[in-house]
Design brief:
Elements lengths: L2 H14 L3 H4 L2 H21 L3 H11 L3 H10 L1 H7 L18 E3 L6 E3 L18 E2 L2
Antiparallel strand pairs: 1-2, 1-3
Helix pairs in contact: 1-4, 3-4, 5-6
Length: 133
Amino acid sequence: MSDIDNLVVLETALAIRPHLSDLLEPQTAAHVQELLDQLLQQIQTHGSEDTIADQIWDLLTDHKATQAWSTQFQPSLAREKGAKGSTNLPGDISSVSYRQFKCPLCDHTWSRDRVGRPTPLCPTHQIPLELIS
């Protein structure tokens, strides 16, 4: 995986983290969050190594709900890596525009994947994200 792909996986992991409890059963969400936190800690310690990014992507695509969320959030990476059990959907999704938000204090960004989804707080600073596009 390229450094850009590793960053995309990291961005997806940080973006999905606050939604795990909405996507999965409570016990499963807690387990996935714990594993995700361990992998994110490894990235902070060892840098963005391909094997860690691959493990994060595998974790994010291991459950149907998190797989759907992750592949909608990063459709180009999902096509490239071949999400588990995914099939190519008909139609051109390249014209779908996502509204992007960024933390004013750090580099954390988030893309709204559907109309009506509330904008989350920055997971690091717990402040509202600002619209950037």
